[in-house]
Structures are given as C-alpha cells and as structure tokens.
Automatic annotation (TrEMBL):
The lineage of its organism: Bacteria, Pseudomonadati, Pseudomonadota, Alphaproteobacteria, Rhodobacterales. Residues 352-455 are annotated as: Lon-protease-like. The keyword Metal-binding applies. Coiled coil: none annotated. PANTHER family: DNA REPAIR PROTEIN RADA, DNA REPAIR PROTEIN RADA-LIKE PROTEIN. A motif (RadA KNRFG motif) lies at residues 253-257. Residues 67-216 form the RecA family profile domain. The middle region has homology to RecA with ATPase motifs including the RadA KNRFG motif, while the C-terminus is homologous to Lon protease. It comes from Aliiroseovarius salicola. Keywords: ATP-binding, DNA damage, DNA repair, DNA-binding, Hydrolase, Metal-binding, Nucleotide-binding, Stress response, Zinc, Zinc-finger. The keyword DNA repair applies. It comes from the Bacteria. This is DNA repair protein RadA. Gene3D superfamilies: 3.30.230.10, P-loop containing nucleotide triphosphate hydrolases (3.40.50.300). InterPro entries: AAA+_ATPase, DNA_repair_RadA, P-loop_NTPase, RecA_ATP-bd, Ribosomal_Su5_D2-typ_SF, Ribsml_uS5_D2-typ_fold_subgr, Rubredoxin_2.
Length: 455
C-alpha cells in the first residue's frame, strides 16, 4: 500500500498530527485541525516535501537596535579599513600575494587587539609555532598576551575555540585547513568551501570574531571558490609591489563600513608601520617637472589621495606597438588612446605606450581619465606640465569632460601638499577652494589646444 505522508496541524495551538480528527488532543478545540499544504512539490528525497519547520519571528524595519560595539586595535589604518574597528562575531577574509606581509600585519594586529583587552588566539597552519615566535621576537611582540597554536585539523580547531571561547581567532590560512568529513586534499575547492562555511557559522553562533587569511591566484583573486567571499562579512586585499616599501590594505566588501576604503602601510625592518598621510608618501620621490609626469587627485573610499601618473611614448620597432600598463586598467587606456585619435586627431599608431602609477598604487576610478590623457600628451609632445598642478576628470567617448564627485575634497588635499592649480571639468563643484586656481575645461579637444597648443 502507498504510504500516507500527509501532515495535519491545529490552527489554535499548532500541534502536529499524522491523521485528521475532529478534536485537538493538545488544546481541546473542535474543528481546528486542517491538512498542511506541502512546502514544495516533488519526491521527498529531492525536495522539502510536506514536513513543515518552525515559524520564525518577523520584525519591521523600524526596530531600533544599538549599533554593534567596536574594538580599536590602535593601528589607525587597519581600524579605518574595518569601518571603525572590529565588530564582535564578524568574519573577515584577508587576501594577498605570497610574501606581501599578511602574516606580519595580522600578528601585529593580534598583539594590538590582545593589548586592547581582547582574548586573542592565533592559529597557524603554514608555519610552526617556533617560526611565529621568531617573527614576534623580530617585531618586538613577545610580551603581547596572544595565545598561539599550530594546527590544520578543522575539527580540533573548532573544539579548542569552543572550549576556550576567545573573542578573536586568526586562522592563517584557510587553504591549509582540512575537514575530515570532506574527501579531498587541503586547499581544494571543496575543503576551502567547507572550512570557510564552518568557521563563519561558528563565528556567528558563538559571537567570536574570526579573521581568515586567503592566498591569491595569478589573476589576483582569492584562491578557491568565490562563494567564500560571499560567506564572510568583510573582504580585505593586501596590495603592493615587492620592489616598493608601500603596502595598501583595501576593503572590497564590508558589511560594517564603507567599501573601497584603503589603509596605507610602509614595510620596515620592524614590521609594518602605518602611514597617516599617504599622498605625501606617494609624491615624496617626485622630481622636477618632466614630460609624461602628471599628479592625479583621486578618492579612495572616503580618503583623498594624490598619486603620480607616469607615461612614456616612444617609436615602436615592432609592427604591433606595445601597450603596457601598471596600476591602471589596460582597457581604459585603449579607450583614451582611441578618443585622442578620433576626437583630437592625435595618432598613437607606431608608438609604444607605457603607463605607470608611481609607488605601486592601483587606481580604478574613471576620474583619472584626464590625468592619463595629460600624461600621454605630455610624453608625446615632450612638454611638461607645471609642477604645482593637479588634474582630474572623466572622459566620455564623445570627447566631453564629465564632472566627478568630491571635487572639493580633492582640491583641499592638493592645497595641503602645496599645489595651487588644478585642471578639472567645467561643471565641477569646486566649493570654497580659496587659493586654488581651477582651470575648467569643457571637452578634450579644448584641453589639448589650451594646454599643449594643439587641436
């Protein structure tokens, strides 16, 4: 005989029965038992079927809740990127190239958080405890109240954290963790997904903040499934070139603060030191005005940052000219070159083009279009722009210059560093930029004709 999977429940008390009856045995009410509608259609093994779960409490949007308390570690740049400090029960993923300084930064952060009063546990899956102690000795952190362990078994780690109940746990790294219920090697997609899910769920249910370290692939993405980035609350990327001493911590996702915020650090013999004024640092090695050098006033998150674009245009010995870009989007460079040729009549055919952002910085906002065009024209015409001038503005495909946001903050940052002139789109809202000469341009052909005497 066919099995009856129908379910019945009482409208008065919610009691569940396997068959219908006229009177509820739970509350004694009559004619309150009705047949439950299945949650989903299809076979029971492939769908939810007719078995119902427990109801959840719903609230409206006007529910008042106090903002989560935050703990400051004392590293102002790290606190800025986190959105103002560490939130209890949050899951944070930190990615970066091998050797960029992730373990150094997190060991320093662990020491600062522990000194601020947080019970901190540092679990290393890549290095032995002795190696971590040697790094702590080099950084002068041996007296910090941080508890250390070297383990890769996820079950052992969760058992220990559940027993010790620290307030902050740092896992270095998620690629070395392995769960014994997953039949694959550590570092595989299945293991990384399972470990990240277990650690994130553990952080939410126990109220423990968890920081995960993730490796980065050749494409610059965190190794493993992208679903790991969706599981956590905050995703931070540690950027920088090994040839430069600057390191940039960028928030690409943050549920507790602004995204695209950056923190700037300098790699020294004693670890990573924070940089309070990154604009001065990025422009510290700038020489006298030279062709192809243009200062761009940008915005990274909520912070105005001045960086130098460097361009070089030279005759190409090859049939296919080179287009080399560091720190900017190569596709956008191709667009700027096409607009210069189509709207201004300035060809770059047969010329190699090299573009670089000084200091290892990576710029992504469209407001850098005009600065890039100025650097390319300056290199091509061998004419340097004045040393005290900053440039910013977005270029459309028609050649028009479009205004960008936070113009006043860009100009204030430029004035703070001694710049007294700016080139910007005509519709920019400059605000009260007293002492700053703002030269407004309507379109790219007008900019080329007025600045470089061509058009």
């Amino acid at each position: 005989m066919a099995k009856n999977n129908n379910s019945y429940s009482c409208n008065a008390c919610g009691a569940v029965f396997t068959k219908w009856s006229g009177r509820c045995d739970g509350c004694g009410e009559w004619n309150t038992i009705v047949e439950d509608t299945p949650l989903s259609a299809g076979p029971a093994k492939k769908s939810l079927g007719s078995v119902r779960g427990q109801g959840i409490i719903l609230t409206d949007l006007s529910t008042e809740e106090t903002p989560p308390p935050r703990t400051h570690c004392g590293l102002g740049e790290l606190d800025r990127v986190l959105g103002g400090g560490l939130v209890p029960g949050s899951a944070i993923l930190v990615g970066g190239d091998p050797g960029i300084g992730k373990s150094t930064l997190l060991l320093q952060a662990a020491a600062r958080f522990a000194e601020a009063g947080l019970d901190t546990v540092y679990v290393s899956g890549e290095e032995a405890s002795a190696q971590v102690r040697m790094r702590a000795q080099r950084l002068g952190l041996t007296k910090a109240p941080v508890r250390l362990a070297a383990e890769t078994n996820l079950r052992n780690i969760l058992t220990t954290l559940d027993a010790e109940r620290p307030q902050l746990a740092i896992i270095d790294s998620i690629q070395t963790m392995w769960a014994d219920n997953v039949d694959s090697a550590p570092g595989s997609v299945s293991q990384v997904r399972a470990a990240a899910h277990e650690l994130t769920t553990f952080a939410k249910t126990r109220g423990i903040s968890v920081i995960l370290v993730g490796h980065v692939t050749k494409e610059g993405q965190i190794a493993g499934p992208r679903v790991v980035e969706h599981m956590v609350d905050t995703v931070l990327y540690f950027e920088g070139e090994r040839g430069h001493q600057f390191r940039i911590l960028r928030a690409v996702k943050n549920r507790f603060g602004p995204a695209d915020e950056i923190g700037v650090f300098e790699m020294t013999g004693g670890g990573l030191s924070e940089v309070g004024n990154p604009s001065a640092l990025f422009l510290s090695d700038r020489e006298e005005p030279a062709p192809g050098s243009v200062v761009f006033a940008g915005i990274e998150g909520t912070r105005p940052v001045l960086v130098e674009f460097q361009a070089l245009v030279a005759p190409s010995p090859h049939s296919q000219p080179r287009r080399s870009v560091l720190g900017w989007d190569g596709g956008r460079l191709a667009m700027i070159l096409a607009v210069l040729e189509a709207r201004c009549g300035i060809p770059f055919a047969g010329l190699d083009v090299y573009l670089n952002v000084a200091g290892g910085m990576k710029i992504s906002e469209p407001a850098a279009d005009l600065a890039v065009a100025a650097a390319l024209l300056s290199a091509r015409e061998d004419a340097a722009l004045p040393k005290d001038t900053v440039v910013f503005g977005e270029i459309s495909l028609s050649g028009a210059l479009r205004p960008v946001g936070q113009t006043e903050n860009r100009l204030k940052e430029a004035m703070k560093l001694g710049f007294n002139a700016a080139i910007a789109p005509s519709r920019s809202k400059t605000g009260t930029a007293d002492g700053m000469r703002v030269q407004k341009m309507t379109d790219l052909p007008g900019f080329v004709g007025e600045i470089f005497g061509a058009g």
